[in-house]
TrEMBL record, chains A, B:
The organism of origin for this protein: Paraconexibacter antarcticus
SUPFAM superfamilies membership: Winged helix' DNA-binding domain
Sequence ranges assigned to domain HTH arsR-type in this UniProt record: 1-86
Pfam families in the record: HTH_20
Record-linked CDD domains: HTH_ARSR
InterPro entries cross-referenced by the UniProt entry: ArsR-like_HTH (IPR011991), HTH_ArsR_DNA-bd_dom (IPR001845), HTH_MetalResp_TranReg (IPR051081), WH-like_DNA-bd_sf (IPR036388), WH_DNA-bd_sf (IPR036390)
Any coiled-coil regions, as ranges: none
Alphabetical UniProt keywords: DNA-binding, Transcription, Transcription regulation
Full protein name: Metalloregulator ArsR/SmtB family transcription factor
Segments traversing the membrane: none
Domain of life (superkingdom): Bacteria
DNA sequence: GTCAAATATAACTCACCGGCTATATGGCGC
DNA sequence: GCGCCATATAGCCGGTGAGTTATATTTGAC
């Protein structure tokens, strides 16, 4: 699954947001996510296949960590659009300068 | 459908990319997209519902234009991750400086 | 070795998505 | 009005996604 598709699911974005705070075990994620443990494991599998997270087994616990590299592609795709919407903001700003309310 | 989900479909990203070059009629999009006209219309409907494009009827032609505002949300979500992956690059860079091959 | 804890996988269901063809809708030319 | 052109919608189908419960797997504790 592409990084784009992986991000389409809100729970998966939640998981990534949680992992931004550092490594988390599956149990810790389950505790914060209002879906079943197998559901979390399934999402983690998708994220792992997309290269967005990595696992580090530690005893019987598996700690997941963020691996944000694939997001760079999304960011790169977004790049030209950033110009587009800031251009729009510029237009608005110029308009306001020339026609103050 | 959320902006994230809208972006999950490659054809829809293609459509947005095409619209970056300016307004396009449905026919022009169909000509470049290797899917049927109804398929394109369906994707345009999704993009419209997500607020990513706007329509301007002009005679019997409907011209679609980019409306990138919802992408700002995606960009904002991505923001903290940008830090995360540039941090990783920094780590790599420092490593290379301290241990040149 | 046995049991319990942590996690993954299997198997199932339901809903939705993306493609198609066929058809409806609305504007234009005559 | 009639027919054509551009586009949208309806309706169908096959695939897949996200959730569940039940079960398998691995590891640690004893």
């Amino acid at each position: 699954m592409s990084a784009y598709a992986a991000l389409a699911e809100p729970h998966r974005r939640d998981i990534l947001d949680l992992l931004r705070g550092g490594e988390r075990s599956v149990g810790e994620l389950v505790a914060r996510l209002d879906i079943s443990q197998p559901g979390v494991s399934k999402h983690l599998r998708v994220l792992r296949d997309a290269g967005l997270v990595t696992v580090r087994p530690e005893g019987r616990v598996r700690r997941y960590a963020l691996s944000p590299a694939p997001l760079a592609e999304v960011d790169a795709w977004l790049e030209p659009y950033r110009a587009a919407w800031s251009a729009r903001l510029d237009v608005l700003q110029r308009h306001l300068e020339e026609h103050p309310e």
